[in-house]
Amino acid sequence: MSFDRIIDWSMTKIEIPFRTPFTIVSGTSKLKLHTRTILLLKVRLSSGQELLSEAHPLPGLHPETIDFCQQELETFLHTVRHVPFTLPPTQLDFFKLEKLSGPSRVAIEGLFLPRLLPYPHQVISQLLIVPDLQPPVANQFKGYKYLKIKLGRLDFKQELAWAQALHEALAPDVRWRLDGNQQLSADQLAQLAAMPFATRIDYIEEPLVDFYKILCAPTQDVLPLPFALDESLPLALASNLDLIRLKRLGLKAFIIRPPSLGGYTGAMKVMELADSFNLFSVLSSCFEGPWGFERLLHLLSAPVESLSRAEAHGLDTVCNLDFEHLHVRIPNIPLFNPRSSK
User: Fold this and answer.
1) Model pTM?
2) Average pLDDT, the chain
3) What does the alpha-carbon distance between residue 112 and residue 92 come to, in Å, rounded to a whole number?
4) How does residue 120 score in pLDDT terms, banded at 50, 70 and 90?
5) How many whole angstroms separate alpha carbon 35 and alpha carbon 50?
6) Would you state the CATH architecture of domain 6-116?
7) Where does 127-340 sit in CATH, by number?
8) Which of 283, 297, 292, 234 is nearest to 57 (CA)?
9) Which among 75, 89, 244, 278 is most buried, taking Cβ atoms within 10 Å?
């Protein structure tokens, strides 16, 4: 058996412009981003091979910063420098990464994920994240099976009217996946569920203010719409919330973001858990950089049964990042083209 070792490394902060500004909404707070900052990690092995990966904590979603990840990775890499390991690894946690934060663990696991999980050359995304204030013109969404619609961009009554106009313009088989970002009141959620377009809704992510506290309340009634766990998912798993009870309340899906779930290894374990409870696993982007998007494609090829029920993955966000003027060679990310789907 041959062994390899990490000999040297470098880290570079890279600013990637958004083609259109991206607004992060969480409860009552909003943060508009014009660029995405990632930390590119380059590692050189004793075999002479160079491996690339990235850390990509997202402001408003992850508590870690780029500077924190850089310092954490620097300390960790000094610890494992010259430690022998085999390639390809049979598992991603052979360096004992559990003490690392999620974004830093993603960076280390991302170095080796391509060797463990190859991905298909052509990836078809059937889900489109509807851009901010997109006018409801059906032709712009032609070919997509699912639309993800973020709530909170308009006054609630205006948003209902906008959604109704979109509903009337679309083919009847187009499904919706809403993101409530913990903004709605119980009355607003009930109004949403009573609208004619509610028949299109597969689920709504984190619909209510203080959503995690609501889920913990023992007297909580069934929600009027099926829901998905996103921001609350790590806390729900850490506190061992009763998933059977949550399914009775309307739980339908887990939103999978590897940096929030302990890296790619943690994400695969959560997908396996979802499968055991007959829930969807929906792999979701948090605007990774080029290497992060490529790793998500590798993760899609994981031998996990729950992925067979994740019919759409919100990876069209890659189209909102402008890679054209980066002074670094990036991976060849497949285009997401719903019209080529048979």
Assistant:
1) 0.86
2) 83
3) 7
4) low
5) 27
6) 2-Layer Sandwich (3.30)
7) 3.20.20.120
8) 292
9) 89
